[in-house]
Every structure is written in C-alpha cells, then in structure tokens.
Amino acid sequence: MKNFKAPWNREFALTFVAFIACCTAVPYMGFNLSSRHPLVGWAMFICPLILLIFGLNLLVRGYRLEPGSLIIRRVGGSKRFDLSTLVSAIADPSAMNGAMRYLGQFQNDKLGDFRAFGADPKRSVVLRFKNQIVVVTPDRPEDFVNEITKMK
C-alpha cells in the first residue's frame, strides 16, 4: 500500500478561500435580512452553508494505491478504481491545460472526455482505463506512475 498527498496549487487555494468567504458572508447577510424578509433571509442563510458542506466533502485528501486498486480519498468518503482495467498511466503536466479544472467531468482536445480528481494541474497523471480517462494530481507524479504500473 502506497499513499500520495493531493497538494493544492496557488490558484486553487485562492479560489477555495474566496469560496469559503462567500459561503460564510452570504449567510451572515441572510441572517440579518431574515427579520424583514424571512423566506429570502433564511434561503440566503441555509443555501450557501449546504453548498459549503457539499464542496468540502468533494475535496481530495490524497491517493492510496493498494494491490489492484486506486483509492481516491476525499473528505466525505472515497472513490475506488479497479486497476485491472488500467491501460496506461502517464505523468503529463499539460493534460488539464485550459480553464480551472480540479474536480469533475471535463473535456479537452488532448484527452477528450475525462474525470479530474485533484487541485494542482501541473502534477497531472493521466490514467487511461478501458472505459474512461481519469486525471489525478499526486504530490510525486513520477513515483505514482511507477507504483501504479507495478500494481496493475
């Protein structure tokens, strides 16, 4: 079993701080507005807090390689990928070039449709499975590629 961290780049960290600020400032304004406009005030109070909790649960904490499996560890759980269907693993810092891409389903000219699980695109590792492409951003991309290739 090998563990890898999921570092954040500066852009992601600043975006995350702005997200936290908005999700805490808007409820404060909604709480103050709730005495004059209860429905709007409470909606402004509750919706950003739900969004904040949902967003925090999606954050990638790290990656674990176990025999036959890649486990993407998130704050709110984990996602397992079966390595028996892994075709290739390549460290490619330019794989996620373009708009801010961190978590979710994306598409670009280089990879086509892919899923991203990470917060530092310069550390991208492209994992081509038989039925999907996954991009992860471990702290040591070359070591990750070597280890995942051994375990498949």
Radius of gyration equals 18 Å
Query: How much helix, percentage-wise, in residues?
Result: 25-40%
Order of neighbouring strands in the sheet with most strands:
5-8-9-7-6
Number of strands: 9
What low-confidence regions span 5 or more consecutive residues with pLDDT below 50? none
The H/E string reads EHHEEEEEEEEH
Number of helices: 3
Q: What would your notes on this structure say?
A:
This protein is an alpha+beta fold. Helices cover 37% and strands 33% of the residues. The protein contains 3 helices and 9 strands; from the N terminus they run E-H-H-E-E-E-E-E-E-E-E-H. It has helices spanning 10-33, 38-58, 141-151, and strands at residues 2-5, 60-66, 69-74, 77-82, 86-91, 103-108, 112-117, 125-129, 133-136. The chain has a 5-stranded mixed beta sheet with strand order 5-8-9-7-6, covered by helices on one side. Strand 8 (125-129) and strand 9 form a beta hairpin. It is elongated. The model has no long low-confidence stretch (mean pLDDT 89).
